[in-house]
Each structure stands twice: as C-alpha cells, then as structure tokens.
C-alpha cells in the first residue's frame, strides 16, 4: 500500500494534495445548491459536502470554503434566507460539474448550462428541474470552523420532493433507483448500486437482510 506521512502530504503539490485528501475519505454526496440573489439573479453550484444534521426537526448542513473570494451560494442564502438542495442525476453530471466555474455575480449558471430552474409552492429559491430529489431549506445558522476558516451552514428543511417510486413504505429512499450520482474527490462521478439493506442492529443478534432474496 502507498503510505503518506503528514510531512509528505504537506510537501505534495497543492493540486495533488487536494485530489488525494478529497478522494481518500470515500464517496461523497453530489448535490446542486440553488439560490436567488436580492436582485433576482439565480445561482446554482455543485457541492459534495452536504451532511445530515438531524431528523427531528429535519436539518442538513454544508461546508463552505473560506470566504476570501465571492461565494454566491453563501451570500444569497444569507440575504434571502433560503436555498435548495438538488441531487445530481446521472444525465446531469457534465452540466453539474460546469457550475464550479467562476462566473461573475450577475451571471447565472443556469444560463450557462442545460440545467433549468423551477419554482415550487411559492418557495423563494429555485429548484433544479429533473433532479429526482429536491429539498427546500431555510438558512438558520452558521459556525466558523476556526482550524481552517471554513464555515458550516445549517439549513432547516421545509420541503422535500421525491419521485414516488424511490420511496419505500417505511420512508427509506432507494437512491440507486433514482440514478443519482456520488462524487469521488473534486472531479469524479460514480453511479452506486445497492448491495443490501439490513435490519436495526441489536447486540448478540445475527444481522438480517431486509431485501427478499429470489
């Protein structure tokens, strides 16, 4: 196996180090965050840092890199109070990746890609049309991670839209049926497939599959 010490990691070229550290921690979620500025300009950007915060009340979070350069998603979500989280379908990956390009604030990434904004139930932020999982969030708080000047933004989930066929009776969402992708590092995209699903684990009880075997 390859081995890198901290000293060796810090001595790597910055791009090599970024690729290594962003991919070695495993597959990440792949989502498009969409917002609208106070001037009515939409913004959509790819994020691989969406995390589950809690289910009661429903909340999620995402990590922002240091705000030493303009961050449209951050500015818009704070000023408007709203943002949406949209999972990336396998047919969207090229356009989703392009949203990482640094356009001026007055240019919408929707206008530079084939991604389309859609507004639902009078929510102030746009969703991404054709995303199979769409989540409407209200900005509620942020926390500075002082060790590297990144920011954890917390959103309260107010709306969830899902394709009916991917939601099981117990509420579990089967994402492989939605054909949503995951990220490998900063520029790789993968299509996961379900291996198994198990019952709630209990001490001294054998692990039982929830999937009926043919």
Using brief descriptors, characterize the structure shown:
214 residues, alpha+beta, three-stranded antiparallel β-sheet, seven-stranded antiparallel β-sheet, 5 helices, 12 strands, globular
How is this structure best described in words?
The protein is α+β, with helices and mostly antiparallel strands and 214 residues long. It is 16% helix and 32% strand. The chain contains five helices and twelve strands. It has helices spanning 6-11, 14-23, 72-80, 93-98, 175-178, and strands at 28-29, 31-36, 42-47, 51-55, 58-64, 82-87, 117-118, 127-128, 133-145, 150-162, 182-184, 188-190. Strands 3-2-6-9-10-5-4 form a seven-stranded antiparallel β-sheet. Strand 11 (182-184) and strand 12 (188-190) form a beta hairpin.
